Amino acid sequence: MFLDFYKLREQPFGVTPDPRYLYFSPGHREALASLFYGIETGRGFLSLVAEPGMGKTTLLFQLLQRWKGYVHSAFLFQTQCDSRELIRYLLDDLGLKTSGEDIVRMHSELNDFLYRETKAGKRVVLFIDEAQNLSDTVLETVRLLSNFEAPDTKLLQIVLAGQPELAQRLAHPGLAQLRQRISVQARLDSLPADEVVNYVNHRLQVAGYEGTELFTPDAFVLIAQRSRGIPRLINNLCFNALSLGCAMRCEQINSEIVRAASVDLALDSGVPKPQILQPRTTQRVAAEVLTSWQSLYSWIRDNLIRRRLFQASALSLLLASVAIYIGARSGVGAVRPSGAKHLNPASAIAAADSESASGPPVTGPSGELPAHQSTRAGSQENSVDSFTYVVQPNDTLRDLCLSTIGRYDSIVLSEIRKLNPDLKHPSRLEVGQEIRLPLNATK
What we know:
This protein is of the alpha/beta class. It has helices at 2-5, 26-40, 56-66, 83-93, 103-119, 136-145, 164-170, 176-181, 193-206, 217-227, 231-247, 255-264, 282-305, 308-330, 345-358, 371-385, 397-404, 410-419; strands spanning 45-50, 71-76, 123-128, 157-162, 182-188, 386-390, 434-438.
Protein backbone atom coordinates (compact mmCIF):
# COMPACT_ATOMS: atom_id res chain seq x y z
CA MET A 1 0.00 0.00 0.00
CA PHE A 2 1.25 3.49 -0.77
CA LEU A 3 0.80 4.87 2.80
CA ASP A 4 4.26 3.68 3.88
CA PHE A 5 5.87 4.58 0.57
CA TYR A 6 4.68 8.19 0.72
CA LYS A 7 4.87 8.35 4.57
CA LEU A 8 1.18 8.96 5.23
CA ARG A 9 -0.53 8.25 8.55
CA GLU A 10 -3.90 7.47 6.96
CA GLN A 11 -5.74 7.39 3.70
CA PRO A 12 -6.00 11.00 2.41
CA PHE A 13 -8.50 10.26 -0.35
CA GLY A 14 -11.03 8.06 1.37
CA VAL A 15 -14.69 7.67 0.44
CA THR A 16 -16.24 8.28 3.88
CA PRO A 17 -17.51 11.81 4.72
CA ASP A 18 -14.94 12.61 7.41
CA PRO A 19 -15.43 16.23 8.60
CA ARG A 20 -11.69 16.54 9.29
CA TYR A 21 -10.99 16.36 5.56
CA LEU A 22 -13.57 18.95 4.63
CA TYR A 23 -11.87 21.64 2.56
CA PHE A 24 -13.45 25.02 3.10
CA SER A 25 -13.53 26.54 -0.34
CA PRO A 26 -15.28 29.92 -0.63
CA GLY A 27 -18.43 28.12 -1.77
CA HIS A 28 -18.30 25.64 1.13
CA ARG A 29 -17.76 28.43 3.65
CA GLU A 30 -20.72 30.35 2.36
CA ALA A 31 -23.02 27.30 2.34
CA LEU A 32 -21.95 26.25 5.83
CA ALA A 33 -22.47 29.77 7.21
CA SER A 34 -25.93 30.01 5.62
CA LEU A 35 -27.09 26.70 7.08
CA PHE A 36 -25.60 27.45 10.50
CA TYR A 37 -27.30 30.83 10.66
CA GLY A 38 -30.62 29.39 9.44
CA ILE A 39 -30.67 26.78 12.21
CA GLU A 40 -29.55 29.27 14.86
CA THR A 41 -32.34 31.69 14.01
CA GLY A 42 -34.96 28.94 13.70
CA ARG A 43 -35.92 29.54 10.06
CA GLY A 44 -37.69 26.16 9.80
CA PHE A 45 -36.86 24.94 6.28
CA LEU A 46 -33.40 25.02 4.66
CA SER A 47 -32.02 23.39 1.49
CA LEU A 48 -28.59 22.44 0.16
CA VAL A 49 -28.22 21.66 -3.56
CA ALA A 50 -25.07 20.37 -5.27
CA GLU A 51 -23.90 18.02 -8.00
CA PRO A 52 -23.11 14.41 -6.99
CA GLY A 53 -19.71 14.15 -5.31
CA MET A 54 -19.49 17.79 -4.20
CA GLY A 55 -19.41 16.90 -0.49
CA LYS A 56 -22.97 17.64 0.65
CA THR A 57 -22.97 14.89 3.29
CA THR A 58 -19.55 15.89 4.59
CA LEU A 59 -20.73 19.47 4.95
CA LEU A 60 -23.81 18.33 6.88
CA PHE A 61 -21.66 16.26 9.26
CA GLN A 62 -19.48 19.30 9.81
CA LEU A 63 -22.60 21.26 10.66
CA LEU A 64 -23.63 18.62 13.19
CA GLN A 65 -20.16 18.72 14.69
CA ARG A 66 -20.52 22.44 15.37
CA TRP A 67 -23.93 21.98 17.01
CA LYS A 68 -22.82 19.00 19.10
CA GLY A 69 -24.33 19.17 22.58
CA TYR A 70 -26.92 21.77 21.61
CA VAL A 71 -28.90 19.95 18.88
CA HIS A 72 -30.81 16.70 18.88
CA SER A 73 -30.57 15.59 15.26
CA ALA A 74 -31.96 12.92 12.99
CA PHE A 75 -30.23 12.01 9.74
CA LEU A 76 -32.35 10.20 7.14
CA PHE A 77 -30.78 8.46 4.13
CA GLN A 78 -33.71 6.20 3.22
CA THR A 79 -35.61 8.42 0.79
CA GLN A 80 -37.25 5.57 -1.16
CA CYS A 81 -40.17 5.38 1.23
CA ASP A 82 -43.76 6.44 1.79
CA SER A 83 -45.07 8.93 4.35
CA ARG A 84 -45.64 6.40 7.14
CA GLU A 85 -42.17 4.92 6.72
CA LEU A 86 -40.61 8.38 6.77
CA ILE A 87 -42.23 9.20 10.14
CA ARG A 88 -41.16 5.83 11.56
CA TYR A 89 -37.54 6.36 10.38
CA LEU A 90 -37.60 9.79 12.03
CA LEU A 91 -38.86 8.48 15.36
CA ASP A 92 -36.34 5.63 15.36
CA ASP A 93 -33.43 7.99 14.67
CA LEU A 94 -34.59 10.29 17.49
CA GLY A 95 -34.63 7.30 19.86
CA LEU A 96 -38.41 7.11 20.20
CA LYS A 97 -40.05 3.71 20.33
CA THR A 98 -43.13 3.31 18.16
CA SER A 99 -45.82 0.96 19.37
CA GLY A 100 -47.57 0.58 16.03
CA GLU A 101 -48.16 1.81 12.51
CA ASP A 102 -50.78 4.42 13.41
CA ILE A 103 -49.50 7.64 11.84
CA VAL A 104 -51.70 9.78 14.08
CA ARG A 105 -50.14 8.25 17.20
CA MET A 106 -46.66 8.69 15.73
CA HIS A 107 -47.37 12.38 15.15
CA SER A 108 -48.51 12.71 18.72
CA GLU A 109 -45.35 11.08 20.08
CA LEU A 110 -43.20 13.33 17.89
CA ASN A 111 -45.05 16.43 19.08
CA ASP A 112 -44.53 15.53 22.75
CA PHE A 113 -40.82 14.89 22.15
CA LEU A 114 -40.35 18.25 20.40
CA TYR A 115 -41.98 20.13 23.28
CA ARG A 116 -39.76 18.37 25.83
CA GLU A 117 -36.57 19.18 23.89
CA THR A 118 -37.58 22.80 23.41
CA LYS A 119 -38.22 23.26 27.15
CA ALA A 120 -34.81 21.72 27.82
CA GLY A 121 -33.20 24.36 25.57
CA LYS A 122 -32.25 22.01 22.75
CA ARG A 123 -33.00 22.30 19.09
CA VAL A 124 -34.24 19.38 16.99
CA VAL A 125 -32.93 19.25 13.44
CA LEU A 126 -33.96 16.77 10.74
CA PHE A 127 -31.47 16.23 7.89
CA ILE A 128 -32.83 14.48 4.80
CA ASP A 129 -30.10 13.51 2.35
CA GLU A 130 -30.79 12.70 -1.34
CA ALA A 131 -34.14 14.47 -0.95
CA GLN A 132 -34.64 14.60 -4.72
CA ASN A 133 -35.80 10.95 -4.50
CA LEU A 134 -38.79 11.79 -2.30
CA SER A 135 -42.17 11.58 -3.98
CA ASP A 136 -44.53 14.55 -4.05
CA THR A 137 -46.70 12.91 -1.39
CA VAL A 138 -43.76 12.42 0.98
CA LEU A 139 -42.55 15.98 0.34
CA GLU A 140 -45.99 17.19 1.36
CA THR A 141 -45.65 15.13 4.56
CA VAL A 142 -42.30 16.80 5.20
CA ARG A 143 -43.94 20.19 4.75
CA LEU A 144 -46.58 19.29 7.35
CA LEU A 145 -43.80 18.47 9.82
CA SER A 146 -42.99 22.17 9.92
CA ASN A 147 -46.39 22.75 11.55
CA PHE A 148 -44.90 21.55 14.83
CA GLU A 149 -44.29 24.95 16.37
CA ALA A 150 -44.77 27.07 19.44
CA PRO A 151 -46.13 30.62 19.36
CA ASP A 152 -42.61 32.07 19.23
CA THR A 153 -40.44 29.40 17.58
CA LYS A 154 -40.30 26.38 15.32
CA LEU A 155 -40.04 23.10 17.18
CA LEU A 156 -38.38 21.28 14.27
CA GLN A 157 -35.74 22.49 11.82
CA ILE A 158 -35.60 20.61 8.49
CA VAL A 159 -32.66 20.59 6.06
CA LEU A 160 -33.27 19.13 2.58
CA ALA A 161 -30.05 18.14 0.80
CA GLY A 162 -30.01 16.83 -2.74
CA GLN A 163 -28.85 17.04 -6.31
CA PRO A 164 -29.96 19.72 -8.81
CA GLU A 165 -33.07 17.64 -9.48
CA LEU A 166 -34.26 18.72 -6.03
CA ALA A 167 -34.34 22.37 -7.12
CA GLN A 168 -36.26 21.35 -10.24
CA ARG A 169 -38.76 19.41 -8.15
CA LEU A 170 -39.29 22.33 -5.80
CA ALA A 171 -39.93 24.62 -8.76
CA HIS A 172 -42.97 22.53 -9.72
CA PRO A 173 -46.28 24.42 -9.20
CA GLY A 174 -47.66 21.57 -7.08
CA LEU A 175 -44.93 22.11 -4.47
CA ALA A 176 -45.29 25.88 -4.26
CA GLN A 177 -46.25 25.79 -0.55
CA LEU A 178 -43.11 23.84 0.34
CA ARG A 179 -40.86 26.04 -1.82
CA GLN A 180 -42.21 29.20 -0.16
CA ARG A 181 -41.29 27.87 3.30
CA ILE A 182 -37.63 27.30 2.40
CA SER A 183 -35.99 30.47 3.73
CA VAL A 184 -32.33 29.48 3.18
CA GLN A 185 -31.15 27.93 -0.10
CA ALA A 186 -27.44 27.02 -0.13
CA ARG A 187 -25.56 25.69 -3.15
CA LEU A 188 -22.17 24.07 -3.83
CA ASP A 189 -20.43 24.60 -7.17
CA SER A 190 -17.45 22.73 -8.64
CA LEU A 191 -13.95 23.80 -7.62
CA PRO A 192 -11.89 26.00 -9.96
CA ALA A 193 -8.38 24.90 -10.96
CA ASP A 194 -6.54 26.81 -8.22
CA GLU A 195 -8.91 25.45 -5.56
CA VAL A 196 -8.22 21.89 -6.76
CA VAL A 197 -4.55 22.36 -5.81
CA ASN A 198 -5.50 23.62 -2.36
CA TYR A 199 -8.02 20.80 -1.93
CA VAL A 200 -5.47 18.06 -2.68
CA ASN A 201 -2.74 19.61 -0.50
CA HIS A 202 -5.24 20.06 2.36
CA ARG A 203 -6.16 16.39 2.39
CA LEU A 204 -2.50 15.35 2.18
CA GLN A 205 -1.67 17.58 5.13
CA VAL A 206 -4.52 16.15 7.24
CA ALA A 207 -3.27 12.63 6.38
CA GLY A 208 0.20 13.53 7.74
CA TYR A 209 2.22 14.14 4.59
CA GLU A 210 5.27 16.34 5.31
CA GLY A 211 7.45 15.93 2.21
CA THR A 212 7.90 18.11 -0.85
CA GLU A 213 5.20 18.69 -3.46
CA LEU A 214 3.76 15.23 -4.13
CA PHE A 215 2.04 16.25 -7.40
CA THR A 216 3.75 18.23 -10.15
CA PRO A 217 2.07 21.40 -11.55
CA ASP A 218 1.29 19.56 -14.80
CA ALA A 219 -0.33 16.78 -12.80
CA PHE A 220 -2.56 19.30 -10.99
CA VAL A 221 -3.64 20.81 -14.30
CA LEU A 222 -4.66 17.38 -15.58
CA ILE A 223 -6.43 16.51 -12.31
CA ALA A 224 -8.53 19.68 -12.50
CA GLN A 225 -9.35 19.00 -16.14
CA ARG A 226 -10.31 15.35 -15.84
CA SER A 227 -12.20 15.67 -12.54
CA ARG A 228 -14.10 18.83 -13.60
CA GLY A 229 -13.55 20.18 -10.08
CA ILE A 230 -15.76 17.55 -8.40
CA PRO A 231 -14.19 16.47 -5.06
CA ARG A 232 -15.28 12.83 -5.31
CA LEU A 233 -13.66 12.47 -8.74
CA ILE A 234 -10.56 14.25 -7.45
CA ASN A 235 -10.32 11.70 -4.63
CA ASN A 236 -10.68 8.74 -6.98
CA LEU A 237 -8.17 10.12 -9.45
CA CYS A 238 -5.56 10.94 -6.79
CA PHE A 239 -6.00 7.56 -5.09
CA ASN A 240 -5.38 5.70 -8.34
CA ALA A 241 -2.48 7.99 -9.24
CA LEU A 242 -0.80 7.30 -5.88
CA SER A 243 -1.35 3.58 -6.34
CA LEU A 244 0.28 3.66 -9.79
CA GLY A 245 3.08 5.87 -8.53
CA CYS A 246 3.82 3.47 -5.69
CA ALA A 247 3.85 0.51 -8.10
CA MET A 248 6.25 2.39 -10.40
CA ARG A 249 8.36 3.54 -7.39
CA CYS A 250 7.88 7.21 -8.34
CA GLU A 251 8.37 9.59 -5.43
CA GLN A 252 6.48 12.34 -7.27
CA ILE A 253 3.26 12.04 -9.31
CA ASN A 254 3.56 13.60 -12.77
CA SER A 255 1.04 14.17 -15.54
CA GLU A 256 1.76 10.83 -17.23
CA ILE A 257 0.77 8.92 -14.11
CA VAL A 258 -2.38 11.01 -13.71
CA ARG A 259 -3.24 10.43 -17.37
CA ALA A 260 -2.88 6.68 -16.95
CA ALA A 261 -5.07 6.77 -13.83
CA SER A 262 -7.74 8.78 -15.66
CA VAL A 263 -7.77 6.20 -18.46
CA ASP A 264 -8.29 3.43 -15.89
CA LEU A 265 -11.23 5.40 -14.43
CA ALA A 266 -12.60 6.29 -17.91
CA LEU A 267 -12.37 9.99 -17.02
CA ASP A 268 -10.83 10.83 -20.39
CA SER A 269 -13.99 9.95 -22.36
CA GLY A 270 -15.38 13.46 -22.04
CA VAL A 271 -12.22 15.17 -23.29
CA PRO A 272 -12.59 16.25 -26.95
CA LYS A 273 -10.02 14.75 -29.27
CA PRO A 274 -8.32 16.91 -31.89
CA GLN A 275 -9.50 16.39 -35.46
CA ILE A 276 -6.94 15.53 -38.11
CA LEU A 277 -7.48 17.71 -41.18
CA GLN A 278 -6.90 16.01 -44.52
CA PRO A 279 -5.17 18.03 -47.31
CA ARG A 280 -7.62 19.35 -49.92
CA THR A 281 -6.59 18.18 -53.38
CA THR A 282 -7.97 19.45 -56.71
CA GLN A 283 -10.05 16.30 -57.12
CA ARG A 284 -11.49 16.71 -53.64
CA VAL A 285 -12.41 20.36 -54.24
CA ALA A 286 -14.10 19.43 -57.55
CA ALA A 287 -16.03 16.66 -55.83
CA GLU A 288 -17.18 19.08 -53.11
CA VAL A 289 -18.35 21.62 -55.72
CA LEU A 290 -20.21 18.90 -57.67
CA THR A 291 -21.85 17.69 -54.47
CA SER A 292 -22.93 21.24 -53.61
CA TRP A 293 -24.50 21.77 -57.06
CA GLN A 294 -26.27 18.44 -56.85
CA SER A 295 -27.65 19.37 -53.43
CA LEU A 296 -28.82 22.76 -54.76
CA TYR A 297 -30.53 21.15 -57.78
CA SER A 298 -32.22 18.58 -55.52
CA TRP A 299 -33.50 21.34 -53.26
CA ILE A 300 -34.85 23.37 -56.21
CA ARG A 301 -36.46 20.27 -57.68
CA ASP A 302 -38.10 19.19 -54.42
CA ASN A 303 -39.05 22.60 -53.06
CA LEU A 304 -39.80 24.65 -56.19
CA ILE A 305 -40.28 22.73 -59.42
CA ARG A 306 -42.61 20.20 -57.83
CA ARG A 307 -44.69 22.83 -56.07
CA ARG A 308 -47.89 23.92 -57.76
CA LEU A 309 -47.42 27.51 -56.70
CA PHE A 310 -44.11 27.69 -58.51
CA GLN A 311 -45.59 26.02 -61.59
CA ALA A 312 -48.50 28.48 -61.70
CA SER A 313 -46.15 31.46 -61.25
CA ALA A 314 -43.87 30.28 -64.03
CA LEU A 315 -46.84 29.74 -66.39
CA SER A 316 -48.23 33.21 -65.62
CA LEU A 317 -44.85 34.80 -66.27
CA LEU A 318 -44.57 32.96 -69.59
CA LEU A 319 -48.03 34.04 -70.76
CA ALA A 320 -47.37 37.65 -69.75
CA SER A 321 -44.12 37.65 -71.74
CA VAL A 322 -45.91 36.30 -74.84
CA ALA A 323 -48.64 38.92 -74.51
CA ILE A 324 -46.12 41.74 -74.26
CA TYR A 325 -44.22 40.42 -77.28
CA ILE A 326 -47.40 40.17 -79.43
CA GLY A 327 -48.53 43.61 -78.34
CA ALA A 328 -45.19 45.15 -79.25
CA ARG A 329 -45.22 43.46 -82.67
CA SER A 330 -48.76 44.57 -83.55
CA GLY A 331 -48.36 48.16 -82.33
CA VAL A 332 -51.07 47.78 -79.68
CA GLY A 333 -50.90 50.24 -76.82
CA ALA A 334 -48.32 52.64 -78.31
CA VAL A 335 -45.90 53.95 -75.74
CA ARG A 336 -46.53 57.56 -74.87
CA PRO A 337 -43.74 60.09 -75.18
CA SER A 338 -41.71 60.86 -72.10
CA GLY A 339 -43.52 64.18 -71.65
CA ALA A 340 -47.08 62.78 -71.87
CA LYS A 341 -49.30 62.74 -68.79
CA HIS A 342 -52.22 60.64 -67.55
CA LEU A 343 -52.62 58.16 -70.39
CA ASN A 344 -55.67 55.93 -70.17
CA PRO A 345 -54.44 52.36 -70.84
CA ALA A 346 -57.94 50.94 -70.80
CA SER A 347 -59.05 53.24 -73.67
CA ALA A 348 -55.90 52.43 -75.67
CA ILE A 349 -56.48 48.68 -75.29
CA ALA A 350 -60.16 49.07 -76.27
CA ALA A 351 -59.16 50.96 -79.41
CA ALA A 352 -56.62 48.32 -80.27
CA ASP A 353 -59.19 45.55 -79.82
CA SER A 354 -61.70 47.31 -82.11
CA GLU A 355 -58.97 47.81 -84.70
CA SER A 356 -57.88 44.17 -84.69
CA ALA A 357 -61.50 42.98 -84.83
CA SER A 358 -62.23 45.04 -88.00
CA GLY A 359 -59.78 42.99 -90.11
CA PRO A 360 -57.93 44.11 -93.29
CA PRO A 361 -59.88 46.26 -95.85
CA VAL A 362 -61.30 44.59 -98.92
CA THR A 363 -60.27 46.28 -102.21
CA GLY A 364 -62.08 46.39 -105.53
CA PRO A 365 -60.79 45.24 -108.91
CA SER A 366 -59.01 48.54 -109.45
CA GLY A 367 -57.33 48.43 -106.07
CA GLU A 368 -59.47 51.22 -104.62
CA LEU A 369 -61.40 50.92 -101.39
CA PRO A 370 -65.15 50.56 -101.66
CA ALA A 371 -67.16 53.49 -100.43
CA HIS A 372 -68.46 51.68 -97.36
CA GLN A 373 -64.87 50.84 -96.25
CA SER A 374 -63.23 54.16 -96.95
CA THR A 375 -64.39 55.73 -93.69
CA ARG A 376 -63.28 52.67 -91.71
CA ALA A 377 -59.81 52.84 -93.20
CA GLY A 378 -59.59 56.52 -92.32
CA SER A 379 -60.63 55.89 -88.75
CA GLN A 380 -58.20 52.96 -88.55
CA GLU A 381 -55.40 55.19 -89.73
CA ASN A 382 -56.34 57.80 -87.14
CA SER A 383 -56.38 55.19 -84.41
CA VAL A 384 -52.80 54.30 -85.23
CA ASP A 385 -51.59 57.96 -85.16
CA SER A 386 -53.56 59.03 -82.11
CA PHE A 387 -54.44 57.94 -78.63
CA THR A 388 -57.31 58.56 -76.23
CA TYR A 389 -56.67 60.56 -73.09
CA VAL A 390 -58.93 61.07 -70.06
CA VAL A 391 -58.85 64.66 -68.85
CA GLN A 392 -57.55 65.11 -65.27
CA PRO A 393 -57.92 68.12 -62.94
CA ASN A 394 -55.96 71.24 -64.01
CA ASP A 395 -55.37 69.88 -67.53
CA THR A 396 -55.42 72.31 -70.48
CA LEU A 397 -55.29 71.52 -74.17
CA ARG A 398 -52.16 73.63 -74.58
CA ASP A 399 -50.27 71.69 -71.85
CA LEU A 400 -51.35 68.38 -73.30
CA CYS A 401 -50.15 69.26 -76.79
CA LEU A 402 -46.85 70.63 -75.56
CA SER A 403 -46.21 67.51 -73.45
CA THR A 404 -47.23 64.95 -76.11
CA ILE A 405 -46.49 66.62 -79.46
CA GLY A 406 -44.04 69.26 -78.48
CA ARG A 407 -45.92 72.21 -80.01
CA TYR A 408 -49.29 73.90 -80.02
CA ASP A 409 -50.39 75.79 -83.18
CA SER A 410 -53.25 76.00 -85.68
CA ILE A 411 -52.21 72.81 -87.48
CA VAL A 412 -52.25 70.82 -84.27
CA LEU A 413 -55.55 72.34 -83.24
CA SER A 414 -57.03 71.50 -86.68
CA GLU A 415 -56.02 67.84 -86.36
CA ILE A 416 -57.47 67.70 -82.85
CA ARG A 417 -60.77 69.03 -84.20
CA LYS A 418 -60.74 66.32 -86.89
CA LEU A 419 -60.11 63.64 -84.28
CA ASN A 420 -62.73 65.08 -81.94
CA PRO A 421 -65.73 66.32 -84.01
CA ASP A 422 -67.78 66.69 -80.81
CA LEU A 423 -65.23 68.97 -79.14
CA LYS A 424 -67.01 72.35 -79.18
CA HIS A 425 -64.87 74.32 -76.77
CA PRO A 426 -61.21 73.21 -76.85
CA SER A 427 -60.28 75.84 -74.29
CA ARG A 428 -62.65 74.32 -71.69
CA LEU A 429 -61.92 70.69 -70.87
CA GLU A 430 -63.98 68.81 -68.30
CA VAL A 431 -62.53 66.31 -65.82
CA GLY A 432 -63.19 62.75 -67.01
CA GLN A 433 -63.75 63.81 -70.60
CA GLU A 434 -62.14 61.58 -73.23
CA ILE A 435 -60.19 63.36 -75.94
CA ARG A 436 -58.14 61.96 -78.83
CA LEU A 437 -54.72 63.48 -79.36
CA PRO A 438 -52.45 63.01 -82.39
CA LEU A 439 -49.12 61.33 -81.84
CA ASN A 440 -47.37 63.19 -84.68
CA ALA A 441 -48.98 66.34 -86.02
CA THR A 442 -48.63 67.12 -89.72
CA LYS A 443 -45.73 69.46 -90.38
